[in-house]
Amino acid sequence: MKTKIIYNPKSGKRSLQPLMSYVIEQLSEGGCRNVEVYPTRAAGDATEAARDAHLNGCDLVIAVGGDGTVSEVVNGLASFGRPVTNTAKRPILGYIPSGTSNDFASALSIPTDVRKAVRIITKGHRANIDIGSINGQRSFNYIVAAGAFTRLTYTTPHHLKRVLGVWAYLKDIFREIPLIQKPFRLQLSIDGQQISGEYVIALVINSPNFAGMRKVIPHACMDDGIFDILLLPKSNPKVLWSAVRSMAMGVNESTTESGILHLRGKKISIEAEKRLDWNIDGEHGGRNPIKIECQEKYLQMMVPAMAMHKVLSHQDHS
């Protein structure tokens, strides 16, 4: 099995370089006889490396890094806007998480322990997961977000995240608090349904988890062809705090008592009256209006048995 490891040496608090020999050894024992290791050096490197792996007939591509790294790798494998030849078989994706929050890995029950993560790649289950396309040009794995607190993952300096982990975000949280009193007007089309309003947070999610919070949407599936949309309207601080607490405890109802609007859809178009910064899988995603479409079961990935039963319930578990 021809394999390429795309490795972000700057990701997370720890260095995984000393464990690379172990990873390669375990992959070789698992049937990966031709293993290439590619360390990234700049933003976008992982996307190009994954696309090259696809073009060159790799059977397995392994992302080693945080949410941003695996998002770049998936962009390379999806190649929206830059189609790979129709005859090229898309590689299977493996993931060894080593980032700050690792939301995507957490949703799929992939551990941050390198040895356990490698075992999932060699002994786990193949599952087909949904991804999203944005304006037909790029993909996302688990979240598109805008509004208060959504910029922290890409505005917080990398060196602080490396040293402090999730605690690094605390430094900038207070700077974001005033944004909950500065709503933005959105026009949304969700599977043809038109919605407009003033909001302080807007989220399109392909995961039960985000922002380090677990089971925000407890019954979310990552292979059902549908995204969850959470909209937090303009309100007073007491109601907003109740809404944030509700998200931390899990959103179930279509419209919660705290005022969160919870919708679901496959095709979502969003326009803002003013320029709005979008967070895509933890990285800055630009300020343009966006059109999102769910690509159902688009990507084959190695996952543990736990994920098959918790967030991937719409496929054969054999």
TrEMBL record:
InterPro entries: ATP-NAD_kinase_N, Diacylglycerol/lipid_kinase, Diacylglycerol_kinase_cat_dom, Lipid_Phosphate_FormReg, NAD/diacylglycerol_kinase_sf, YegS/DAGK_C. One of its GO terms (molecular function) is kinase activity. Keywords: ATP-binding, Kinase, Lipid biosynthesis, Lipid metabolism, Magnesium, Metal-binding, Nucleotide-binding, Phospholipid biosynthesis, Phospholipid metabolism, Transferase. Residues 1-139 form the DAGKc domain. PROSITE patterns: DAGK (PS50146). It comes from the Bacteria. Its cofactor is Mg(2+). This is YegS/Rv2252/BmrU family lipid kinase.
